Every structure is written in C-alpha cells, then in structure tokens.
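Case study: CD59 glycoprotein.
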Amino acid sequence: MASKGGYIVLGLLFLAVLCQLGHSLQCYSCINQVNCTSVVNCSHNQDACLFVKAVPLKFYHQCWKYEECSFEFIAKALGEKELHYDCCQKNLCNKSGGRSVSEKMLLLLTLLLEAVCHFYR
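Here is what the predicted structure looks like once written out:
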C-alpha cells in the first residue's frame, strides 16, 4: 500500500504541471550582449530558451523550439560556423548558458533518491 505522502507529492507535481500549461515561457532576448536583461514572452510554438556563444565572440539569447535544439540547425539558422549552445525549458533559464553540470547531477540524484524511497515503502 502506498503512503499518503507519496500521493500528496504526486498531486502537487500534477498541479504544478497544470499551472505551467496556461503560461507562455519567458526567455531573455538579446543579440551580442553578455549580460542580457531584456525579457520576452515566447510564442506558443517556442517551448525553449536558447543561449548561444558563437566564435568569434558573439552571444544570442532568445526563444526557440526545443525540437530544433541541435548544433546543425542552430548554426544554419544563425549563420554561425562555430558555437556552443544550451537549450532549456524554464523561465529565464538562458541568462548565461543554462544549468551547470553540478545542478544537473543534483536533479538526477534527487529523482533517483525519490524513486528508491518510493520503492522501499
């Protein structure tokens, strides 16, 4: 039998997802500014924020389609040959390139711990 706590956590996660469905994603939107502060609401078909650092030094912050987050597509669309990019799907996550490796590892460990705890209840 599952505990009440597990159902409460799942219910809260479900509500959080529903709350996000009605709102458009917000991203920073600037070209060639390291510290971008201009915020835009993305259109309904743009579900990601993009940060690009192109070589020679040029920066892009903008809304993007997550399914088009690939080096080939981004390089062609922006007309850049050498670049580093990060696509993310949270509000204002493209300020300086998205999550670090340590933040991704923390998220992964949190999910793993939750799964293990749920399994042994």
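For the exam, be able to explain this: Residues 101-119 form the longest helix (19 residues).
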